[in-house]
């Protein structure tokens, strides 16, 4: 006899679509006398259905799967759930892409501003330990030395310290206002003037801070420099600039109008110079659209020389700028230059020098003796000015690694071209009309005098301004015999010792090859 258990309600997927029968083997007993062997069917109670060949599982009758939930209509405009999920995902993706584009645009803008400020490999030169010389250990020692030179500067030091300690008080504003160093502004006034330091008002940016265009309540347009407080750097630069040019007034120096010091904030307020800087006109798009003429370039060169002459010879103690470069020469609409950025300036007493344990400046402009020994003197500024003058004449950057190996360094290239008597080759091809031969020669002579390897042979800035401005620079007459005992102009010949340049204004005694350079 056989028994079969038939389950007509349970479905086990595609491999069990027919009735499932469990067969038991026949029992080894004698057959019964019944005419037929009965079949027993056992029917189970109907359980919740399970379908293994799909992705749906249900624990009760009439349950819905994930697909059913996604297709249900929602209360949002009657849209189905999967439609809303798709819309949300698309919105998130679009927002992410937009944020990325804004970030890239902002980064690109900041990079451009940084390039405008320091386009020619501008960088802070690393620290150099001066051999055999003990320099000051800190910034405070530098300024203390300067303060001892002049009692008035010492008073300024004490007044500044008092103001820094009580920067939030009205007493500090009264003290600094009394000594004639401009106005003390509150942080709220600075935020209002710059639109909350809005990025659209940024006009310059560098390693020491960000410069904003601001408008004061009386509608005066100013430049607001928000110093970056990196390891106390803002405090140092704030102090140096206030002491260096706080009381200085000269048409070729940017004027410091006021300042703000609240909490960690250190802000300087300058007169606004609205015609860009010299670097932009020499190497940027401004110069390509409207190149500077020779007369304008000479006006800028002479004005810069006068500004430096005032810092070196018209003040006591004298001020050594330490960072003369094209991006620090601001220009107004009449092409008057104004020297800016006194954050690295040093105050030196009469006949004194300063030995720095860390050389600061911009690569390509720094005097060789200062870079190698840390010895700082006003002649260091003279060298930097000479490089700047070469830049004005040639339109080339002080260091340009895109050029051939012999033309990377502007000073070396300039010397070689002048030494080979191809003086016209140093002129910027954008200069139209070309200057007279006499004017060009006079300017080239000044350039080479300024970058003389012997710092003691470099002229003073007052002499440089006089040589550029007047026509009294001594030249040999075209018709005067070379052997005549008179003042003549000499340039180094090709056989001159490398790295050395004789004085360019000498008495008779130059080699014959040198005498014929300007014929």
Automatic annotation (TrEMBL):
<keyword id="KW-0597">Phosphoprotein</keyword>
<feature type="transmembrane region" description="Helical">
    <location>
        <begin position="81"/>
        <end position="104"/>
    </location>
</feature>
<protein>
    <recommendedName>
        <fullName>non-specific serine/threonine protein kinase</fullName>
        <ecNumber>2.7.11.1</ecNumber>
    </recommendedName>
</protein>
<feature type="domain" description="Protein kinase">
    <location>
        <begin position="197"/>
        <end position="461"/>
    </location>
</feature>
<keyword id="KW-0067">ATP-binding</keyword>
<feature type="binding site">
    <location>
        <position position="225"/>
    </location>
    <ligand>
        <name>ATP</name>
    </ligand>
</feature>
<dbReference type="InterPro" id="IPR011009">
    <property type="entry name" value="Kinase-like_dom_sf"/>
</dbReference>
<dbReference type="InterPro" id="IPR052232">
    <property type="entry name" value="RLK_Ser/Thr-Kinase"/>
</dbReference>
<keyword id="KW-0418">Kinase</keyword>
<dbReference type="GO" id="GO:0106310">
    <property type="term" value="F:protein serine kinase activity"/>
</dbReference>
<keyword id="KW-0723">Serine/threonine-protein kinase</keyword>
<dbReference type="InterPro" id="IPR008271">
    <property type="entry name" value="Ser/Thr_kinase_AS"/>
</dbReference>
<keyword id="KW-0808">Transferase</keyword>
<dbReference type="Pfam" id="PF00069">
    <property type="entry name" value="Pkinase"/>
</dbReference>
<dbReference type="GO" id="GO:0005524">
    <property type="term" value="F:ATP binding"/>
</dbReference>
<dbReference type="GO" id="GO:0004674">
    <property type="term" value="F:protein serine/threonine kinase activity"/>
</dbReference>
<keyword id="KW-0547">Nucleotide-binding</keyword>
<keyword id="KW-1133">Transmembrane helix</keyword>
<dbReference type="InterPro" id="IPR017441">
    <property type="entry name" value="Protein_kinase_ATP_BS"/>
</dbReference>
<keyword id="KW-0472">Membrane</keyword>
<dbReference type="GO" id="GO:0016020">
    <property type="term" value="C:membrane"/>
</dbReference>
<keyword id="KW-0812">Transmembrane</keyword>
<dbReference type="InterPro" id="IPR000719">
    <property type="entry name" value="Prot_kinase_dom"/>
</dbReference>
């Amino acid at each position: 006899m056989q028994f079969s258990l038939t389950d007509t309600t349970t479905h086990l997927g595609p491999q069990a679509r027919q009735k499932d029968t469990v067969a038991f083997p026949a029992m080894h007993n004698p057959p019964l006398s019944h005419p037929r062997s009965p079949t027993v069917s056992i029917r189970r109670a109907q359980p919740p259905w399970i379908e293994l060949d799909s992705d749906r599982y249900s624990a009760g009758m009439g349950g819905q799967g994930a697909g059913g939930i996604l297709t249900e209509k929602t209360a949002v405009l009657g849209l189905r759930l999967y439609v809303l999920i798709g819309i949300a995902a698309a919105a998130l993706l679009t927002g992410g892409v937009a944020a990325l584009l804004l970030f890239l645009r902002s980064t690109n803008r900041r990079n451009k501003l940084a390039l405008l400020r320091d386009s020619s490999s501008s960088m802070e030169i690393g620290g150099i330990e001066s051999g055999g010389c003990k320099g000051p250990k800190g910034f405070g020692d530098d300024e203390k030395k300067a303060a001892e030179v002049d009692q008035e500067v010492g008073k300024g030091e004490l007044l500044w310290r008092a103001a820094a300690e009580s920067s939030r008080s009205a007493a500090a504003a009264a003290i600094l206002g009394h000594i004639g160093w401009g106005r003390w502004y509150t942080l709220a006034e600075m935020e209002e003037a710059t639109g909350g330091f809005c990025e659209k008002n940024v006009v310059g940016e560098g390693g020491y801070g960000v410069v904003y265009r601001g408008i004061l309540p009386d509608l005066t347009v100013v430049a607001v420099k928000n110093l970056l407080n990196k390891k106390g750097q803002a405090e140092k630069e704030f102090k140096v600039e206030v002491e260096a040019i706080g009381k200085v007034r000269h048409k070729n120096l940017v004027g410091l109008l006021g300042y703000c010091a609240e909490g960690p904030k250190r802000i300087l307020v300058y007169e606004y110079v609205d015609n860009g800087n010299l670097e932009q006109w020499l190497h940027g798009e401004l110069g390509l659209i409207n190149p500077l003429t020779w007369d304008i370039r000479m006006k800028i060169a002479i004005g810069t020389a006068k500004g430096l002459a005032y810092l070196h010879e018209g003040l006591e103690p004298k001020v050594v700028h330490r960072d003369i470069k094209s991006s620090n020469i601001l220009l107004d609409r009449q092409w008057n230059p104004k020297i800016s950025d006194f954050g690295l300036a040093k105050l030196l007493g009469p006949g004194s020098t300063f030995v720095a344990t860390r050389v600061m400046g911009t690569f390509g402009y720094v005097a060789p003796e200062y870079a190698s020994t840390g010895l700082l003197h006003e002649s260091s500024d003279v060298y930097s000015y000479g490089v700047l003058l070469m830049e004005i004449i040639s339109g080339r950057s002080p260091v340009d690694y895109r050029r051939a190996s012999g033309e990377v360094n502007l000073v070396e290239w300039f010397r070689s071209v002048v030494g080979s008597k191809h003086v016209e080759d140093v002129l910027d091809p954008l200069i139209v009309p070309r200057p007279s031969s006499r004017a060009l020669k006079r300017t080239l002579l000044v350039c080479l005098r300024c970058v003389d390897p012997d710092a003691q042979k470099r002229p003073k800035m007052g002499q440089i301004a006089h040589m550029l401005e007047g026509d009294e620079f001594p030249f040999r007459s075209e018709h005067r015999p070379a052997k005549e005992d008179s003042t003549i102009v000499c340039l180094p010949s090709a056989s001159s010792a490398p790295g050395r340049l004789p004085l360019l204004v000498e008495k008779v005694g130059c080699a014959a090859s040198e005498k014929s350079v300007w014929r």
